[in-house]
Structures are given as C-alpha cells and as structure tokens.
C-alpha cells in the first residue's frame, strides 16, 4: 500500500537547530490525525513538509507517493488541501470570497491570468453552499471576521477534492459558537468515506473533531508519542509532551484537558 505520507528519519535544521528531529511517521488514506504539542514544538513545520512547501534537511519525505526533492511541487500541491493562517495572509484583501475559493483550483491565492473551467466554477459553488458561505460569497476577504476567514480557508482546502487535507489550527481564534459550528462541519466532512486523509494541528484537545483516529504529541521537534487517538491522548502522555501535569477527560467523542495540580 502507498502511504499518503511517509516520513523516514526526517529532520529540518534552522540556524543549526533541528526544529524537526528524526521524525518517522506514516499516514494512511483512511486515517485522520491530530498533532498536539507546546508552542514552538514544530507542528506547523510538519504541516509545511506535508504540504510540499518545505523540504527536509535530512531524511526522506514522501507525500502522496512522491519523494520531496524529486517531484514538481507545484503539481503535487494541487492534490493537497491546505488551510493555514500564514497561507491565508497571501489572499489579497480585495479578493472576493468567490474568487478566494476558486483560485484554490490552481493552488494560488490571487486571481490573475488562470483560465477556469465550468467544472471549477461549479465546484466552487458547491463548496460555498456546503460550508455555509453563500451570504459572504460576494464580500471581499479583507472585510471578513477571523471566524469567517477561517471558514473560507477550510473551504479553499476542500475545493480541489484533495487526496490529503491539512488543517493548521482551523478553529484558532474562533468564538465558542463558531468553533462548534466549524467542528460540526469538519466532523461531517471527515465522516464521509470519500473524505481524504486529514492531518490537523491544534493547541486544544477540545478542538479534536469526533471520528479522528490518530494523534501525534510533539515536543522539541520530536514525536514523543504517536498512535491511535485513545491510546495517545492520556494523562501521562499529554503531561510528558507538555512538560506539566495534565488531566484529560473524554465524553462521547470529545476531549477536555486541564492542569492536574
Ligand atoms: N525559518 C526559521 N528559522 C529559524 N527558526 C525557525 C524557522 N521556522 C520556524 N522556526 C522555529 O522552529 C520552531 C518550530 O516552529 P513551528 O512554527 O513549527 O512550531 P509550532 O509547534 O507550530 O508552534 P506554535 O504552536 O507556536 O504555532 C520554533 O521554535 C520556531 O521559532
């Protein structure tokens, strides 16, 4: 079987420091992963690798069966849905929501000279409806609230029917209602047998959508623990990754966590 992601002893070195340090990790197409860890642990860097935005300094990283460093990353990126705030910053503030979603078809952020087919326009319309964006479609991206922009970012990631979906803090900065709405939409999306493999970075266990199957706990660029979610999101393992005593509880498919002392 070809893994969606296959990292073998991958390191990313910046200023002489391994910000990702010897990571070996596999993701299969039916899996939905969450990556948790303290600030600066390397979570976003892993997503940058998975999004073919970054090459490893050492080791081998295969994304959708293609080895980074040997493949045209511009072609590869059109097969990946990626939602991240630093990517959203590249969406021109004067771009309409319609166009911000449509341009994902070319994995670009601003409309320029690309030719879009009817199928792209139809798909954009479908995604706008599915992610409750009809009322915002004609608005410019720069006038949207943080929560509305997050929803557009996820819709962009869905637009191309990706083979791999990467979400960097999709619920970050959302109010409670908006977070729950987004989690509901993500849960429904992830539940579909047609949904791609998903890797989501978050700071909070409360933001893990029900149905996610695996978790990686990252600290100092190293995967401290990685595996099936129920075996990984535990008091001991979370406490080890965050370097403080934490207590986690679950109700149904949702988690909450707090300091144990
Ligand atoms: N280009 C760079 N040059 C030097 N250091 C970098 C560079 N990019 C990232 N880093 C450092 O690498 C570490 C990992 O960064 P990364 O953004 O992946 O962490 P993170 O776990 O996503 O953090 P956060 O939870 O705060 O968003 C951080 O210490 C960051 O300062």
UniProtKB/TrEMBL annotation:
Molecular functions per Gene Ontology: ATP binding; ATP hydrolysis activity
Keywords attached to this entry: ATP-binding, Nucleotide-binding
ABC transporter domain: residues covered: 5-245
InterPro entries on file: AAA+_ATPase, ABC_transporter-like_ATP-bd, P-loop_NTPase
PROSITE patterns referenced in this protein's UniProt entry, alphabetically: ABC_TRANSPORTER_2 (PS50893)
Pfam families on file: ABC_tran
The protein, known as: ABC transporter, ATP-binding protein
Organism expressing this protein natively: Agrococcus casei LMG 22410
């Amino acid at each position: 079987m070809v893994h969606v992601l296959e990292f073998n002893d991958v390191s990313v070195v910046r200023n002489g420091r391994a910000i990702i340090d010897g990571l070996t990790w596999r993701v299969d197409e039916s899996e939905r992963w969450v990556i948790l860890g303290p600030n600066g642990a390397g979570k976003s860097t892993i997503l940058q690798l998975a999004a073919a935005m970054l090459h490893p300094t050492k080791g081998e990283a295969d994304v959708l069966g293609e080895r980074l460093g040997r493949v045209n990353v511009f072609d590869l990126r059109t097969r990946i849905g990626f939602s991240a705030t630093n990517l959203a910053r590249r969406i021109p503030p004067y771009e309409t929501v319609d166009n911000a979603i449509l341009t994902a078809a070319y994995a670009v952020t601003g409309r320029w000279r690309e030719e879009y087919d009817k199928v792209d326009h139809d798909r954009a319309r479908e995604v706008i409806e599915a992610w409750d964006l009809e009322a915002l479609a004609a608005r410019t991206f720069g006038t949207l609230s943080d929560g509305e922009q997050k929803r557009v970012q996820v819709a962009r990631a869905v637009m191309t029917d990706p083979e791999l979906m990467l979400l960097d803090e999709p619920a970050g900065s959302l109010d409670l209602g908006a977070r729950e709405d987004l989690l509901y939409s993500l849960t429904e999306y992830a539940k579909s047998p047609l949904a791609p493999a998903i890797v989501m970075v978050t700071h909070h266990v409360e933001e893990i959508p029900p149905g996610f199957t695996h978790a990686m706990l990252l600290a100092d660029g190293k995967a401290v623990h990685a595996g099936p979610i129920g075996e990984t999101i535990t008091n001991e393992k979370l406490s080890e990754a965050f370097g403080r005593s934490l207590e986690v509880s679950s109700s149904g498919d949702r988690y909450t966590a707090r300091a144990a002392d």
